[in-house]
Design brief:
This protein is an all-alpha fold. It has helices at residues 3-35, 44-65, 69-98, 103-127, 146-150, 152-168, 174-187. Keywords: Membrane, Transmembrane, Transmembrane helix.
Length: 188
């Protein structure tokens, strides 16, 4: 993958994460507005489980941004499993607002469909190209130039820098990094 493609992939993943954060925020607003009605206020244990669910979803967004492939699939699975419940609820919220509902109904009529759309947009960006390229696991080939061939020391320094970049992007584990670093230094 070229540097331009890598940058475009990164931009798409950042956009996707902004969509996913927006989705989380709007769903939280819809939840708070819905709980503002005394009949809908949950028990304390329910509030703890809701908090844990939001924390897990936030964790997934952070991991998606760092390039963890499992996180985007976990987010997709949660979205697909939740849609049979979320879509009818959003339709009901819009219907209540159109029937002359309260101010709460108007907030729900906007927030419920909006967070669903943002969720789908975010997932679309991480599962289509160029965003999906961010999650490729293959290590880029260590590149050498003609100048590196002439100077073995600078070639090793370049390879060490590339190795460090792979570690920083979490494309290789710390253990593999240390092992490969030791191999390169042994050649020096």
């Amino acid at each position: 993958m070229s540097e331009a493609e890598r940058q475009q992939s990164k931009l798409d993943v950042e956009r996707a994460c902004r969509c996913l954060w927006g989705s989380l925020a709007l769903s939280a607003v819809a939840l708070v507005v819905d709980f503002d009605r005394p009949a809908n206020f949950p028990a304390a244990a329910h509030l703890v489980s809701i908090g844990a669910a939001y924390a897990f979803l936030a964790f997934l967004v952070v991991k998606i941004k760092s390039g963890k492939n499992w996180a985007r699939y976990a987010s997709l699975t949660i979205t697909v499993l939740g849609f049979p419940f979320s879509v009818p609820a959003a339709i009901d919220d819009v219907s209540n607002a159109l029937d002359g509902g309260s101010g709460q109904s108007m907030v729900l009529a906007f927030a419920s469909p909006a967070w669903l759309v943002l969720q789908v947009m975010g997932l679309w960006l991480v599962f289509t190209r160029p965003g999906s390229n961010w999650f490729k696991r293959g290590e880029p080939a260590l590149q050498t130039s003609q100048a590196d061939v002439e100077d073995p020391c600078s070639r090793l320094v370049g390879k060490l820098a590339q190795l460090q970049e792979l570690r920083d992007k979490e494309l290789i584990s710390l253990e593999d990094f240390e092992k490969k670093k030791a191999e390169l230094l042994a050649k020096l």
